Amino acid sequence: MPAQNATRTPPFAVPGAFVSGLSGFAFSAVAGAILLRVFQPLEAVPLMMACSIGVQATNLWALRRNIRWEGSLMLIVGGLIGVPIAVSLLQSADTHLLRRGFGLIVALYAAYMLLRPTLVTAGAAVGRHWVALIGFGGGLVGGLTAMPGAIPTIWCDMRGMPKSEQRGLVQPFIAVMQLFAIVLLVGHQDLSSKVFVDLAVSLPALFAGSALGVIAFHRVNETVFRKTVLVLLLLSGISLV
């Protein structure tokens, strides 16, 4: 039976990796819709996280000229504080209401912004403490919903950042948050060796999907990229609700 499940894993990888390569986030939202029909949550979540780290590593390499590690530093610092709090909440509280509430807010924001006739414009420079607060929110929400990039992506959209600048800031943040989260997960429970077998089986599809997504990212214009991101935020929010 494990072998059968392993052979069924790749179909979730290509669409999830493609969307992540194009937008920078939403791998779990896309892949989870397929993967959770194949595996139990205790198997699916670690596998999604492991696969997502592979996708993010591919994206970081493909977009290395756009990556702004220094600009992402305060986002990452804030996120590293938020993730452990989220992990603690997952073990001690019922987070279903919080997830649904956040999903509703994200969906309403995305729907509203999709209906706006014009793009927003970047405002004045934001203080480092505010950037860290955005990162904290992203880490906290990411630990509860597997979507660490949602809040930073919304923040970038509200500031009207060009797609290359947005990816350069948010991509490193998501990669570090996912890596940190899986380290914490490993510390709290033993991961089955089957997760690593399924990950190995999925790698070719993950790399192919990511590469196609990055190619699409370079080819779409700012307006198409923004609408794509908002649609993905809308669908991600609805999936949480």
Give the helix level as a range of percent. Answer: over 70%
What spatial form do the alpha-carbon principal axes imply? globular
Radius of gyration: 17 Å
Note the main sheet. none
Provide a brief overview of the structure.
Helix 2 (10-23) packs across helix 4, helix 4 runs antiparallel to helix 9 and helix 5 (69-92) crosses helix 7.
Describe this structure in words.
The chain has 241 residues and is mainly alpha-helical. 80% of the residues lie in helices and 0% in strands. It has one domain (2-240). The two termini are 32 Å apart.
Task: Summarize the SSE layout with pairings.
Layout: H1 2-7, H2 10-23, H3 27-35, H4 41-62, H5 69-92, H6 96-115, H7 128-145, H8 150-158, H9 163-188, H10 193-219, H11 222-240
Helix pairs in contact: 2-3, 2-4, 2-10, 3-4, 4-9, 4-10, 5-7, 5-9, 6-11, 7-8, 7-9
List the defining traits of the structure above.
mainly alpha, 0% strand, 80% helix, disordered N terminus, 241 residues
